[in-house]
Amino acid sequence: MFDTRKTGLKIMSLRKAKDMTQMELADLMQVSYQAVSNWERGNSMPDISKLTDLARVLDVSIEELLDSSEQAQTVRRATQEEEKLTIQEIAEVAPILKPSKLKESIEKAPLESITSTDLMMLAPFLSKDKLMELLEACELEEFNELTPFIPFLESEQIQSILVRKGELHEHLEDVIKVAPFLEREFLFDIAKKVINDDDDPGLLAPLAPFLDSNDLMTLIEEAEAENVNDILPLAPFLSSKDLVSVLARMDFHPQNMKQLIKLSPFIKEENLNELLVQITRAGKKVQEEQSPEPPQSKDSLKDYAKSLIEKGDYKTLKTILPLLDEDALD
């Protein structure tokens, strides 16, 4: 691959040695002075068709201009219609080839020796369809070998690669690596298979950041979560209202109060009070063993905190401190 910065410094040095301005060089090359400026700063390279002219104007050989006899030879071969470049050679000169010339060169090239390294160098210059075609020619077996190419592909193409692995809910590690590039419906189908295989909504945690909140609620309801621990890993991805909706359907036992307190950072106060009222109305008892009845308002929360202090249960007290007013324990 060309070192554009090094070549740019060479062009600038040779131009100044000829006592030319960027504008004068641009006029001789029939390009804009901005193009010359970009060359010299290493932001771009002259088109391959311009390199011979540039070397002539600067009174040097292509070898001296590129500071590489090997690259100079590849450039010469790339400008000759009858020459067939290898994939490795095309990868070297890809930044200075026009799209049409790049496509033509690849179609002529033998693909037997293509490697993932060569293809990675070409990827930014290829169409998505051509990249997919070459990936298949590479016959990469390990998914990790494919992941560097993911940003250059369409969602449907990535999904077609994943599907070849078989049951994707058994390969969540690979799915998570590319989840930001996958379609919502595709991820939902995988998540649904996870739930169908094991009714534990906690298994959805790795996929949760990439699922729509409505889809996540649908999956939790389908799994019929029975205790707070089942949904604790999913709490950050649910709204306060949805979280309370899930909790309201559970059968609470005294030990669940501690788990409910763990969820308090994710539940708005009004929703928490609403939940406690629903539990009470349903005749469900939510209480700590040998502790006062759990709070349903700020006043009762204050009383509950004082009772914990009297019992010396500072561990539980610590979990509800974020819900207390500053003067609650005065």
- Residue fraction in strands: under 5%
Q: What overall geometry do the principal axes of the alpha carbons give?
A: elongated
Low-pLDDT segments = 283-292
Give me the count of strands.
Answer: 0
- Major sheet details: none
Q: What order do the SSEs take from the amino end to the carboxyl end, as H and E?
A: HHHHHHHHHHHHHHHHHHHHH
Distance between the termini: 71 Å
The overall pLDDT average reads 82
Number of helices: 21
Structural class: mainly alpha
Oligomer: single chain
Estimate the helix proportion, in percent: 55-70%
Radius of gyration: 32 Å
Explain what you see.
This protein is mostly helical and 330 residues long. Among the domains are: 154-238; 241-330, no CATH class. The chain is 57% helix and 0% strand. The chain has 21 helices and no strands. The longest helix is centred in the first third of the chain and has 14 residues, at 4-17. It is elongated. It starts with a helix and ends in a 10-residue tail after the last helix.
Question: How is the topology of this model organized?
Answer:
Layout: H1 4-17, H2 22-29, H3 33-41, H4 48-57, H5 62-66, H6 69-78, H7 87-93, H8 99-108, H9 116-122, H10 128-138, H11 143-146, H12 155-163, H13 172-178, H14 184-197, H15 213-223, H16 228-231, H17 240-247, H18 256-262, H19 269-281, H20 298-311, H21 314-320
Helix pairs in contact: 1-3, 2-3, 6-7, 7-9, 14-15, 17-19, 20-21
List key phrases describing it.
0% strand, 57% helix, elongated, mainly alpha, 330 residues
Short note summarizing the structure:
With 330 residues, the chain is mainly alpha-helical. The chain is built from 21 helices and no strands.
